[in-house]
Amino acid sequence: MDSTREVDVVVVGAGQAGLAAAHHLRRGGFAPERGFVVLDHSPGPGGAWQFRWPSLTYGKVHGMHALPGMELTGADPARPSSEVIGAYFADYERVFDLRVRRPVDVRAVREGGGGRLLVETSQGDWSARALINATGTWDRPFWPRYPGQETFRGRQLHTAQYAGPEEFAGQRVIVVGGGASGTQHLLELAPYAAATTWVTRRPPVFREGPFDEDAGRAAVALVEERVRRGLPPRSVVSVTGLPLNDAVRQGLRDGVLDRRPMFARITPEGVEWPDGQRLAADVILWATGFRAALDHLAPLRLRGAGGGIRLDGTRVAADPRIHLVGYGPSASTVGANRAGRAAVRDIRRLLAGDPAVAA
Predict the structure, then answer these.
(1) Residue-by-residue DSSP string for 96-129
(2) Which of the 8 DSSP states describes residue 269?
(3) How far is residue 101's CA from residue 347's CA, in Å, rounded to a whole number?
(4) pTM of the full predicted structure?
């Protein structure tokens, strides 16, 4: 007997983007379990936030935007962000009756016949008329490769494995990466580590003053242009610069954020620069970001010659049944909310037979 379950829309992922999309599906008349289903591989609510290190408190989080229809109020800024946002997402799922199924691993999405998509998962298969992919990036940490990397006798870890600064007490730590995570790690590690060194490929750009709506739109437009051309997206943060807050200013004054250029190779004892200068280290912490977790879409062959997936808004240009939310220009929390609404609007038109969307 064929046990494949049918539904109009499958949402993959229950982070900010997935929950926003599910909310707009609910508002658009799609019933949970019959009209749509949300599949999430995480053990509990909270998206990637549930995996953040405990020392990343809610007060240190920048740019967390509320989910549509329900504000996050009264949160203790000293409480770990993983707990605050995990509890908020759990309440959101309950209040709007989104019925997220977890833990469910989506293994592959492929053609299912009759114009439908077949979504293969660890908990059985689903047949869908459309799919909203909201899998984010946390499951694909990016590890750059450098000569000699395998010879290093110390410890190497990625931001995804970072659990807090205490375990680095008395150690010499090299932090690689010019994003917000890199600066946060350095500021936290400085009181514990014997020494910290900051290494980046490009000089960091610090942003003075408030980040207003015009600046935000300009940053998003730069990322959006890449995905419209079918190129792999850059993060929105990569074009906004690093906020110059009080903690960062103090780190610059103290020399904690004294950046050095990228080393050329890794040695058993540490790293070496092109001019032969060496630095001994016990730990290399790679704060080098993440890539979009899209391997399950590979059977559909959506990637183009540019290496990315070309989008028209949130809709995949090569397959109008599929939308990517929380990807590229919608990777920010406010962008994810807007993208979820736009994706649902397009899907409603597609399922109603609008030829302008189906083309």
Answers:
(1) TT---B-S--EEEEEEEETTEEEEEEBTEEEEEE
(2) S
(3) 21
(4) 0.88
